Description:
Elements: H1 4-22, E1 27-35, E2 46-49, E3 55-57, E4 63-69, E5 72-79, E6 86-93, E7 98-105, H2 112-121, H3 125-129, E8 133-136, H4 138-143, H5 151-155, E9 161-162, E10 172-173, E11 181-185, E12 188-189, E13 194-195, E14 200-201, E15 208-214, E16 228-234, E17 244-249, E18 253-261, E19 268-277, H6 279-283, E20 290-307, E21 310-327, E22 342-361, E23 366-387, E24 392-416, E25 419-440, H7 449-452, E26 453-456, E27 459-472, E28 477-488, E29 493-505, E30 510-521, H8 540-543, E31 548-560, E32 565-595, E33 600-631, E34 639-654, E35 658-661, E36 668-678, E37 682-691, E38 701-704, E39 753-756, E40 772-781, E41 784-785, E42 788-797, E43 805-811, E44 816-821, E45 826-834
Parallel strand pairs: 1-7, 11-16
Antiparallel strand pairs: 1-4, 2-3, 2-5, 5-6, 8-15, 9-10, 11-12, 13-14, 15-16, 17-18, 17-45, 18-19, 19-20, 20-21, 21-22, 22-23, 23-24, 24-25, 25-26, 25-27, 27-28, 28-29, 29-30, 30-31, 31-32, 32-33, 33-34, 34-35, 34-36, 36-37, 37-40, 38-39, 40-42, 41-42, 42-45, 43-44
Amino acid sequence: MRYPGFTICLFAAITFFTAQLFSQPLAKIEGRVYDRQNRQPLTGVNVFLVDTQLGAVTDSAGNFAIISIAPGQYKLRATMIGYESFEIGSLKISAGERRRIDLLMTPRVIEMSAVTIEARRQKSRQDILSTGLHELSPRRAKNLAGGGEDVFRALQTIPGVLARSDFNARLYIRGGRPDQNLVLMDGVSVYDPYRLFGLVSMFNPETVTDVKLLAGGFSANYGDRLSAVLDIANRNGSDTSPFRANINTSLTNASFVAEGRLPGRKVGSWIFSSRRTYYDLILSNLTDAGSFPNFFDVQGKINLATDAAGTLDFTFVNSRERTDILTTDKDAKDEEQSRPDSIAALDRQDQTILSLRHRRLFSKKLSSSTLLSHYRNGNVTSFGARFPLRGFIFSAQADLQTTETALRQDFSYTANSQHAIDFGASIARQRAENFWRFFTDNPAILLADAIRFTDHSPTFMKSGAYVQDLWQLSSRVTIQPGLRWDYSSFVDQHIISPRFSLLYDANILTRIRFATGLYSQFPGYETLQGEGFRVSLQNVKALGIRAERAAHFLASVERKLDTQWTLRVDGYYKSLQDLLVPQLGDTTWLVVTNRDSVGVRTELQQTKYFTFQPQNNANGFSRGLEILLEKRADGPSKLNGWVGYAYALVRGTEPDNGRFFLRYDQRHTITAVAECRLGRKWQLDMRWQAGSGFPYQKTVYTVEVVEDANRNGRLDVYEDRNLNGRLDRGEDRNGNGKLDVANPQTGLPDERTIEMSDDIRNRAGNNRLPWTSRLDLRLSYFPKFWNASWVFYLDVINAYNRRNVQDINYDPKTKSDEALYGIPLVPTIGVSVRF
């Protein structure tokens, strides 16, 4: 395509003016829902127009708004578990009218049949059909004990969702890598949704309104990802007042949120938020080692009703992360003889997201959504270290920038209450700039040319289109067949992916779901920013590199046990094909076989090393069983929460290495989450999680590798890095003019050792970390004073201070394993105020 920018702009203009041409003046209903007894606003009430697809859910202040209503006669209904239904039997709406209605709902115990029917109406038909769907409320993410008020860490309490360590919020979902998850923010693909090197996510629960996790079997409107979908929507600002604000502190950062209605007579709202770390400001005054990892971001959203039939949303995100660390020994007189190693690390990351979305209702049956977005993420990292006593140095520099401009158009046609067709298309122009340089004179580190130096900046197009038909065959059976097409000019590959979902209402208490489909993911540098693996993608077409593929098979049974308790059992199998894995190369290195006073004896040995050149020569599978027992009561219940168990098995297969276990294969995971209300002003939250050990590559022996720069198979006599014609001091520390046999300061052999494993791909999977468990507690107090609502909380991570092993490293000095432990007992306090 020669003129992608012109094509995108033309497509957007045609869509917008076509929408304006066929629109008609429609109306809006807004209001607030209260508890009739205490007059407190109710959150999570489902307010909808009966026999239509129009409705809304009240926010934390009890507000709702139903937009794009065609003129006519309607029946308005409001439902919530634990309350009587509220209904207005005859409601006449005129063209362009803006009607305000405040509702009072009466608490009561509802019969089982009524609860089941009304609870189902609180979700869209698409959500009800989705087999792998889990929804997380922002309130639960904010109040979760030990979660740091982070959305991604809250998602880790869902069965099938894992984190590899306490220090990482990256999500491994049902056997998929983090880069295989499609992360959407208001419909925009976000390739690096993390802050602080993955410690937390970019999403603030104060500004999020909807968090949907599709753990597999997702419908045809989602594409170019292999494992799961995280569809997260930012909320609109409150339009009940011109200004509201909230200030909050959490474990890692402080945030500020301001919102209000648009000025003048415009119908709409705005919201603005900002976050910044604060611990770095404190630590920088205690040491001169540099700036500790920190971030600052701003997000905003403006929602505007263009007329009675359409809305326009503008969203922006801008963030920056900085790290600048330098460790040296100021007391050392001779830096060549400096006792500790000196290390310098510099990291700069900047992210910008801009999006403009126009929604329009042409009629009661046809609606559209047009999304134009721009995404840019730049990451510059440099790292250097000098090991004077070990006689080597190394340095690395990595620059990775991804820029994507995309246009997406979606249509939804509802023929009747039993039949709805969705279809749409997208086109995106992406440019990736990948620069990588690595240098070391340590002979124990073998590097391929692609690792030593890479400079690749491809520009390419990605396109996709889909159609899906949600069809209610009977009162009990609903199906949704779908078909998707994807194309990437980077690898010049077209892919057709059929999808299918089925919902069977066995009875009023039981639902059975099934989903299957084909899924694919094109290779690209942008996945590195979501913790994929570093690869060289130069000459991908010539090398025959293509998309990774998967086939999903999911089944789910959900049973209502009573008005509050729900039991859900999920089973899944994912077949993985054409997986990209770095290839192993064959080489030789010179190994010391004996050291004594006479000299050093060596021999050449064969070995393998990672080339970082990927190939689609790995297959695999992921299968598992998940059980979730949940109590959710929005009424007067004092206890809410859930208990979950997940069994999972993840394996890969290579032609030359056979089967191997992936590093995120956790066989058993148990989770318990509880929220207990202690009166009107106190709340206790608890999270307990235990899991079996992840596999790790165990070191079984070490070898000492020495320099053989001229490849003559013998130990080099001279190391002349500065080309001065003399032996470098790093190789002749005692000044005798001969190559050192031992370190003159310690008397020990030189530390040019490398850990070796007899199972480089972890084929057996026998080496596993021990079980881990952690209990987190959070006690919150909710007073009101100074015309503001306050929250004071005490959060305790790892309350019984268990030493959970996160990984195991081998120490060649002691010739033993050393455990790396997770977060110890950490109490924190925080405060939030809303005014």
